[in-house]
């Protein structure tokens, strides 16, 4: 039995999946499978049990930390947009461990807490909920809801700029135990680099950053990651 208690399981399911046609479901299944393989490669150093389908359109995975699970969940949400998912993250142990087997054969309080989080997200129509059975959950979930409120109001162009911002200047590697907000939000030459990647002007990127509240969004994601890294 593994004694570590800070694994994080993820459960994600598409919103209103029963309302789409068989053809749309087939096409979405192919997109999900492609995304699943991409994410298993991208996050291979932080995944304990690979991302896999558990039933229908529902995905499960197990990560070695809550912050890595959260980073994946945001990446998953942004990659699959405009398809909307409910996502539950559960922090806990990994008591039933079958090395090399898929996530459906694993179990522990991390999975039980992820299921609770997913059920809360479904009940209260939230995009993402995290559950560790600690009082601090409420504070993290307020921050998660605030970050999603920004994401949900952004235009496709603003979402694209935000995605490129994370690619050019990732949040997680820059975070220290004590950090300056400006170091998370502003990387020297970042807007110019994004403009070059998107074939536009720095001024246009700056307009998207301001209108899409991208600095505030990065600040919230950085705060959530720091919180998960040092408190939960």
Describe, in plain words, how this protein is organized in 3D.
This protein is α+β, with helices and mostly antiparallel strands. The protein folds into 2 domains: 7-133, Alpha-Beta Plaits (2-Layer Sandwich), CATH 3.30.70; 153-230, no CATH class. Helices cover 53% and strands 15% of the residues. It has 9 helices and 5 strands; from the N terminus they run E-H-E-E-H-E-H-E-H-H-H-H-H-H. The chain has helices at 22-42, 66-80, 109-123, 137-153, 156-168, 181-185, 190-198, 202-211, 214-230; strands at residues 7-14, 47-55, 58-63, 85-92, 128-131. The protein has a 5-stranded mixed β-sheet with strand order 2-3-1-4-5. A hairpin with a 2-residue loop joins strand 2 (47-55) and strand 3 (58-63). Helix 7 crosses helix 8 (202-211). The longest helix has 21 residues, at 22-42. The radius of gyration is 18 Å and the shape is globular.
Labels describing this entry:
single chain, 232 residues, alpha+beta, Alpha-Beta Plaits, 2 domains, five-stranded mixed beta sheet, 9 helices, 5 strands, 15% strand, globular
Number of strands: 5
**What is the helix tally?**
9
Main beta sheet strand tally, sense and closure? 5 strands, mixed
The CATH superfamily name of the largest domain is Reverse transcriptase/Diguanylate cyclase domain
């Amino acid at each position: 039995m593994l004694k570590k208690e800070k694994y994080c399981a993820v459960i994600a399911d598409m919103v209103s999946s029963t309302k789409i046609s068989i053809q749309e479901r087939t096409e979405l299944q192919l997109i999900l499978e492609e995304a699943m393989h991409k994410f298993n490669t991208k996050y291979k150093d932080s995944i304990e049990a690979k991302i896999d389908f558990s039933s229908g359109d529902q995905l499960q995975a197990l990560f070695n930390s809550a912050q890595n699970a959260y980073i994946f969940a945001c990446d998953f949400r942004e990659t699959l947009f405009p398809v909307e998912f409910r996502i539950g993250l559960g922090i806990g142990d990994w008591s039933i461990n079958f090395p090399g087997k898929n996530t459906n054969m694993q179990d522990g309080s991390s999975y039980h807490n992820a299921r609770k989080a997913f059920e809360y997200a479904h009940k209260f129509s939230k995009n993402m909920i995290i559950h560790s059975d600690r009082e601090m959950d409420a504070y993290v979930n307020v921050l998660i809801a605030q970050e999603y409120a920004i994401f949900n109001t952004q235009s496709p162009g603003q979402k694209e700029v935000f995605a490129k911002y994370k690619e050019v200047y990732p949040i997680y590697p820059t975070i220290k135990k004590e950090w300056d907000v400006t170091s998370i939000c502003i990387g020297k030459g970042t807007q110019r680099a994004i403009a070059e990647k998107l074939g536009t002007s720095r001024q246009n990127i700056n307009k998207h950053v301001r209108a899409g509240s991208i600095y505030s969004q990065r600040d919230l994601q950085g705060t959530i990651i720091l919180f998960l890294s040092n408190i939960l």
